[in-house]
Write a structure and sequence with these properties.
The structure holds 2 protein chains of 2 kinds. Chain A is built from 8 helices and 29 strands. Chain A has a 5-stranded parallel β-sheet with strand order 6-3-2-10-21, covered by helices on one side. In chain A, strands 12-19-13-14-15 form a 5-stranded parallel β-sheet. Chain A is about 20% helix and about 30% strand. Chain B is α+β, with helices and mostly antiparallel strands. The chains are: A alpha/beta, B alpha+beta. The interface between A and B is large, with 43 and 44 residues.
Chain lengths: ~425, ~475
């Protein structure tokens, strides 16, 4: 119980050692790793009815490869991570939404069991990312029914068994765009076209061939949607070839806006935590500390978005750092931190802060996003105008999915020579 | 036979001939029906669409105007000033979200700067005495995020923001509680005026009334023609708007108005009562009265304006974009005229100020009807004004209300995360006297799905709740069990 209770303050206060906000792969993995190692409670709060995050409604296989060393469907993966966290001793509460910061590390929560406050000694933000809807992409036209994001589509089809239309256009050329195609097939909806701004069909890697052949999805490259048409239901989308400016209307009754991720960063911003202007998630160092002492972050809010298993491994990584914080309560001075910057065609890099003496980032990788396709990319790190190191990588840099670079590329940087810039060509 | 919700009111019984029929369930029509139903007459409200407030009234800039900039001496000027007071009081009684943010008119060039003293004089002539001329420094002190180049400003401390959806819903609900028959899906297609009774032929069947009030907004001129008139033309004037994320709200804590020109009021930046920031509207005269789509040109225009007004705002995410149509007419004042011979009254040309003026227009209509021989005897023992669900951001929302959640856990089950709308509010909206029957109706009553994710997380759950709650065959509510709110 607190005595600084105001009229609005919740009547009940919980005091776990660690509060994990978000019960997706990152949060659950962090909780599973933390629970056996801290004296007090590890509390996971999730606002959905069930924990598990996005994989709950991605009803296809391909989950768990890097963290569990096996391949599961999304829902099975979500269940397994939830069970693992629970068995490790973490307390998971669903239908519980953190609505704002109270003071310090304390937050207020709304749930059907009532309003309550949580005053933990450490917080792990694991709120993930969402796709930008059509409005945030500033696409004009009518406002008909039948416009979805992948998240909403998969929710509707897999969790609520609702019907969608018969002929869909998928907007986007990311991994998730193919996930949308799989869901549409299951819902009995054919795909008229996948509209992607990218130049090379190689953007989608192995998925592309498989997608084209197995799903029969025609891909329209180098194109963007300029208008949504239809009342009261979608009748079509107008698309434009970005090179020739030629326009045409694709008839359809459903439009799925896929990818174009933005972190769910409300708590970051309202908590006055430094925001990375490129990922729009919090700035973190390789220990996944945010700028607010005691607040850590993990998962796809840091790299919107990588696969679920990468988010889960972030969770394991952050657990060590949280344990260290609980033991020492020490927060490094920011003066010696070296910022990492991404230069075009790279959009962002995560983590984006390097401190001397800190651990390697999760999996020993820097995560980056590229807007151009490079089959044999050469990555360069520069500091103070000098080339620090250069590396040719054996895997492509492709738009629409995270580009991973060994962290050893930063070997030899100086803590005193200013920001390090990463480029690819 | 037809089973439109609200078509009959217990205790009064359906009347084959209504004393007065109001056509149009927007702000103005609803206010008029409510006002008239406060008297000993039977009233029907006839609406073309399947919900009240689904036309012009749903998409405007949602400003409660002082009327400082109206043309002095006009009917509009008088009714806006009166309406400001009436609606402010009514909002307090019913729980319509209002924030008294104040406004600043900002001058960006010498010509605009030179126009400010004249605007202050105009405000004085309109009986508004709180405006003040301020310098550029003071403008920036009030709104630091404004773009470069401000030369000066004029403050209007009483301009306010309001929830247009709740206003419309409160007035219509009140009208309903006072006994008004609300007939939805009743688009009027033809009119037969006989000696004592006028018959409106509608898509929902014939409706009979002694007096007809035309408050049909965008359709008012066409309806007017059905009564044999050719006195005005409604031009649909499209206004496109951007609504920015709530995280942008600290940038804009009051209404930032441009200095009006001959071409209209221009593009403003304003907070909304839901905690967002709005940029708009455009102003484009069209011919198609259904053209509520947004356009590439409109977006480009708004972004260009935004770049000048507040460049930092454009870095924020866009939550929603929409377009509304104002019923512009070819004259400079409201057009409210009674035709005693045909027992017909026109309320036309009510532009964007109609939100503010609605209740005053209703009073005025009552006076005109009385002058035309209609006996309007005040009823005693009117039902109290309805207590509307609070969907603003400034007060306490159900998800923040510990006592309320303890009493009913459904208010603690947040379904729409971005807008923090609970299962309890969605349930209530589906079972209200004028219930939500579509997703759009539910959006306007609760804010569900109006947030930054636009349904990514909640869309299908909200749809499910709506389905569960609207499958009713009985007057009591759901025929099959309603969605169970689990705890």
């Amino acid at each position: 119980m607190t005595d600084s209770r105001t009229e609005q303050a919740p009547p009940l206060t919980l005091t776990p050692d660690v509060l994990v906000i978000g019960g997706g792969p990152a949060g659950l993995s962090a909780a599973a790793a933390l629970a056996p190692r801290v004296a007090g409670d590890v509390l996971v709060l999730d606002r959905e009815k069930e924990a598990g995050g996005i994989p709950r409604h991605s009803d296809h296989t391909g989950y768990g490869l890097r963290d569990l060393h096996r391949v599961l469907t999304g829902p099975a993966y979500a269940r397994r991570l939830t069970e693992t966290a629970r068995r490790a001793g973490a307390v998971i509460r669903t239908n519980a939404m953190v609505t704002h910061w109270a003071s310090g590390l304390a937050v207020d929560v709304t749930s059907p069991q009532g309003r309550f406050r949580v005053e933990p000694r450490a917080v792990v933000l694991a709120t993930g990312a969402r796709e930008r809807p059509r409005t945030a992409r500033r696409i004009p036209g009518d406002r008909p029914a039948g416009v979805y994001t992948t998240g909403q589509l998969q929710n509707a089809v897999h969790l609520h068994h609702q019907e969608v239309g018969k002929r869909a256009v998928i907007v986007g050329g990311e991994l998730v765009s193919w996930s949308a195609a799989l869901t549409l097939r299951e819902a009995g909806c054919s795909v008229v076209a996948m509209v992607s701004q990218y130049k090379h069909t190689e953007s989608y890697g192995a998925f592309n061939l498989g997608g084209k052949v197995v799903l029969g999805v025609p891909v329209v490259n180098r194109s963007r949607v300029v208008r949504v048409i239809g009342k009261p239901r979608v009748e079509g989308v107008e698309i434009e070839d970005v090179d020739t400016r030629r326009r045409q209307v694709l008839a359809c009754d459903t439009v799925i806006f896929t990818g174009d991720w933005i972190p769910d960063n409300e708590l970051v911003r309202t908590g006055d935590i430094a925001l990375d202007p490129h990922t729009l998630g919090p700035v973190v160092d390789t220990a996944l500390r945010t700028s607010r002492p005691g607040v850590f972050a993990a998962g796809n809010m840091l790299h919107p978005v990588d696969t679920a298993d990468i988010a889960a491994l972030d969770g394991r990584h952050v657990a060590d750092q949280v344990v260290r914080w609980l033991a020492t309560n020490s927060f490094p001075h920011s003066s010696a931190a070296v910022p990492l910057l991404a230069e075009k065609p790279l959009r962002w890099v995560s983590p984006s802060l390097l401190r001397p003496g800190d651990p390697a980032p999760p999996r020993g990788r820097l995560l980056l996003w590229t807007d151009e396709f490079m089959r044999v990319p050469r990555v360069t790190a520069r500091q103070g105008g000098e080339v620090l190191s250069e590396r040719r990588l054996a895997w492509p840099a492709a738009p629409g999915r995270v580009f991973r670079v060994p962290w050893s590329i930063l070997r030899g940087i100086s803590p005193h020579r200013g920001p390090v810039t990463l480029t690819v060509r | 036979m037809s089973h439109t919700p609200g078509s009959t009111t217990p205790g009064r019984g359906p009347s084959p001939v209504h004393d007065i029929i109001v056509i149009g369930g927007g702000i103005v029509g609803s206010a008029i029906a409510r006002e008239l139903a406060g008297h000993a007459v039977s009233v029907a409200l006839v609406e073309a669409r399947s919900d009240i407030g689904d036309g012009t009234s749903k998409a405007n800039t949602a400003i409660l105007h002082t009327g400082f900039d109206a043309t002095p001496g006009t009917l509009e000027s008088r009714l806006v000033a009166r309406g400001y007071d009436l609606l402010s009081d009514y909002a307090r009684e019913t729980g319509i979200p209002v924030e008294h943010t104040g406004a600043i008119l900002v001058a960006w060039n010498e010509e605009e700067l030179a126009a400010l003293p004249g605007l202050r004089d105009k405000a004085e002539a309109n009986g508004y005495h709180h405006s003040r001329l301020i310098g550029a420094d003071e403008v920036y002190a009030e709104v630091p995020a404004l773009g470069e180049g401000v030369l000066g400003g004029l403050t209007v401390p009483d301009e306010s923001i309001i929830c247009t959806w709740t206003t419309n819903l409160a007035l219509a609900t009140d009208a309903h509680r006072r006994g008004t028959d609300i007939l939805l899906d009743h688009a009027v297609t033809a009119v037969t005026v006989a000696d004592d009774i006028t018959t409106l032929h509608t898509r929902g069947g014939d409706v009979h009334g002694r007096w007809i009030v035309n408050a049909a907004g965008l359709g008012a001129d066409r309806l007017d023609a059905l009564f044999g008139y050719d006195r005005f033309t409604v031009t649909p004037r499209r206004g496109e708007l951007f609504v920015f994320d709530k995280l942008a709200r600290p940038l804009v804590d009051r209404i930032v108005l441009p200095v009006p020109t001959k071409r209209g009021k221009g593009v403003l930046v304003s907070p909304t009562v839901y905690g967002n920031v709005m940029l708009g509207p455009t102003s484009e005269d069209l011919t198609d009265r259904t053209a509520t789509g947004t356009s590439e040109d409109g977006f480009a225009f708004l972004l260009g304006k935004g770049e000048r007004l507040m460049p930092r705002l454009l870095e924020e995410e866009v939550t929603a974009t929409y377009a509304g149509l104002r019923a512009a007419i070819d004259r400079s004042d409201y057009l409210i005229e009674a035709d005693a011979d045909q027992r017909y009254l026109l309320v036309g040309g009510i532009r964007s100020t109609g939100l503010t003026a609605g209740m005053a227009i209703a009073e005025h209509v009552g006076e005109m009807l009385t002058a035309s021989g209609v006996v309007l005897k005040e009823r005693d023992a009117l039902p109290p004004p309805p207590a509307m669900p609070y969907i603003g951001e400034a007060g306490v929302r159900p998800y923040q209300d510990a006592a309320r959640i303890a009493e009913d856990p459904a208010y603690g089950e947040i379904v729409c995360f971005c807008e923090r709308v609970s299962a309890g509010e969605i349930r209530d909206a589906c079972h209200a006297p004028l219930p939500a029957r579509t997703l759009d109706g539910l959006r306007r009553r609760t804010r569900a799905m109006n947030g930054r994710c636009q349904g990514f997380f909640c869309g299908s759950a909200v749809q499910q709740l709506l389905n569960d709650h609207t499958d009713h065959d009985t007057e009591q509510g759901c025929a099959r069990p309603c969605h169970e709110v689990t705890s």
